[in-house]
Amino acid sequence: MNRVLAPVLSSSDLPLPELCAARIDGEVFAIDECFATIDADDTPALRGAALLSLTGPRAVAVLESALWVHGLSAAAPDVHQVRTSRRDRVRLPAIRRLVAGTAQFHDGDVIRAGGMSVTTLERTVTDMLLADDFGPQRCRLVRIALDVHPALVAGCASRIQSADHLPGKHRALRRLTDAQTSAVSNPR
């Protein structure tokens, strides 16, 4: 009986030296900490499956990790950001490349990609705009998202404006306006 390989391979599937040799031979390519066959397309499903191998099924990719899964960032972040629902009492694996926390998710905030739960682009960009640490890298990623998906501007603005008692609401709206202006005037 032929064994069907998973979309992504990790050291739990094959020994790491074999995976590295297959990469050198051009049979697989690296996708974060996993590998995929050379004929596989680098899609959100493939990236989600790679992240799922690190986190397990109860985590939700957020912020830069979500943007990477969605394909808006070429390289995976050095440290993945994931959350679990506040209703769940889940302990995620203790890995140096993983920062975990809890968050409240509403219907429509989360989609699945390769088995991995990921915040939608609108939720991800909104979370980034509301973050206390909104440096040049996050600003650049938000501009890319708005450039690729212009409809996000209205969705994020509506989401932020309609929220009651939201800390940083006005700051997030200013960031959105600034990012939209620079995305239009300076496309990638």
Which short descriptors sum up this protein?
188 residues, 7 strands, 7 helices, globular, alpha/beta
Can you walk through the features of this model?
- The radius of gyration is 18 Å and the shape is globular.
- With about 190 residues, the protein is α/β, with parallel strands linked by helices.
- Strand 1 and strand 2 (about 35) form a beta hairpin.
- Helix 3 packs antiparallel against helix 4 (about 120-130), helix 4 packs antiparallel against helix 5 and helix 5 crosses helix 7 (about 170-185).
- The mean pLDDT is about 90.
- The chain has helices at about 15-25, 45-55, 65-70, 120-130, 135-150, 150-160, 170-185; strands spanning about 30, 35, 60, 80-85, 100-105, 110-115, 115-120.
In short:
The chain contains 7 helices and 7 strands. The chain is of the alpha/beta class. Strands 5-4-3-7-6 form a 5-stranded mixed sheet. A two-stranded antiparallel ribbon has the order 1-2.
| Overall body shape | globular
What is the tally of helical segments?
7
Helicity level: 40-55%
Major sheet: arrangement of strands: 5-4-3-7-6
Class by helix and strand content?
alpha/beta
The proportion of strand residues reads: 15-25%
Poorly predicted spans: none
Q: Average pLDDT value? A: 88
Order of helices and strands: HEEHEHEEEEHHHH
What separation lies between the terminal Cα atoms?
49 Å
- How many beta-strand runs? 7
Largest sheet: 5 strands, mixed
Radius of gyration from CA coordinates: 18 Å
- Multimerization state: single chain
